[in-house]
Design goal:
308 residues, five-stranded mixed β-sheet, 7 helices, 12 strands, elongated, binds dinuclear copper ion
């Protein structure tokens, strides 16, 4: 976790991509050594020496020209065939209904599971052992979905859904980023792909389907505040009047390890500083500073902690 590298493949797709890279590096390395070797040899062996006449000038040796045209052509054809094979393996055509719809927003990721109805944010759970069909969309500008260890990059284009396959060979947490500049907080558009055994994934999906817990005491005041203020204009909480889809769904906010698209760990102290002034934590974020007082912040924190 916390590393973004293409050199540690954890899916059949990224293994194939790294293999192609490895073969290409070897072939290109051999060509590089041959070419630089011949140049270095010629420079030393045939350098100009005092009193020597100019060498004989020759041009248009048909056989040599055919050979040095044919060899690069064959190399390029070979690399082309390998590339086409890797592409068809790592990115086959989409089949059937998608398992997952990921929508890029400035600056966070929404994950919808159309088959179960789960809606999550920035923490994308997938079951291990099979390729997940993912449709990628954008709510505003171009973003780029990239989980280096699991799959290739793919741009999210508003109004033009793209497709990739997402697969993990083993359970684990894999870092994802937005890899196309999309505004001031582009760098804080991180997410996690949490790959789980199929039973664990099913349990997670069940837990995410539940409506929000009914709060009591301090937390109930937080909910009242949430409904009274303009929070409901952007956020959704299942089982409450809040149904907006502008910001992340908060129904299971407390189950996430981070918030703000990776900018902070989801702890009470961090949540307090976020609520006090989100613009200070993540300048430019679409959530305004509501200038909450300490009591209001405490009520919100108490409420959000119940959203497991
Ligand atoms: Cu989204 Cu960069």
């Amino acid at each position: 976790m916390d590393t973004l590298t293409s050199l540690n493949p954890q899916s059949p797709q990224t293994h194939a991509i790294l293999n192609l890279w490895g073969i290409s590096v070897v072939i290109l390395g051999i060509i590089f050594l041959i070419v630089t070797g011949i140049i270095a040899y010629s420079l030393m062996r045939y350098r100009w020496r005092e009193g020597e006449p100019d060498p004989e000038q020759v041009s248009g040796n048909k056989r040599v020209e055919m050979i040095w045209t044919a060899i690069p052509l064959l190399i390029v054809i070979f690399l082309f065939v390998l590339t086409a094979r890797t592409m068809s393996f790592s990115d086959p055509a989409p089949a059937g209904e998608p398992d997952l719809i990921v929508i890029g927003h400035q600056w966070w990721w929404e994950a919808r599971y159309p088959k179960s109805g789960v809606i999550a944010a920035n923490e994308i759970h997938i079951p291990t052992g099979r390729a997940i069909s993912v449709v990628l969309d954008s709510a505003d500008v171009l973003h780029e979905f990239w989980v280096a260890e699991l799959t290739r990059k793919m741009t999210t284009v508003p109004g033009h859904p793209n497709h990739i396959w997402l697969q993990a060979e083993r359970p684990g947490v894999f870092l994802g980023v937005c890899s196309e500049f999309c505004g001031t907080q582009h760098a804080w558009m991180r997410f996690e792909v949490v790959a789980q055994d199929p039973q664990e994934f099913a349990a997670w999906e069940q837990s995410q389907l539940a409506a929000a817990a009914t709060p009591t005491g301090e937390a109930a005041k937080g909910l009242a505040l949430f409904e009274k203020m303009s929070c409901v204009n952007c956020h959704a909480i299942k089982g409450s009047p809040a149904q907006a889809r502008v910001g992340p769904d908060l129904t299971h906010f407390a189950s996430r390890k981070q918030f703000g698209s990776g900018i902070m760990d989801n702890t009470e102290v961090n949540l307090r500083s976020w609520l006090r002034d989100p613009q200070n934590v993540k300048p430019g974020v679409k959530m305004p500073n509501f200038k909450l007082d300490d009591e209001q912040v405490s009520q919100f924190v108490a409420y959000f902690e119940t959203l497991k």
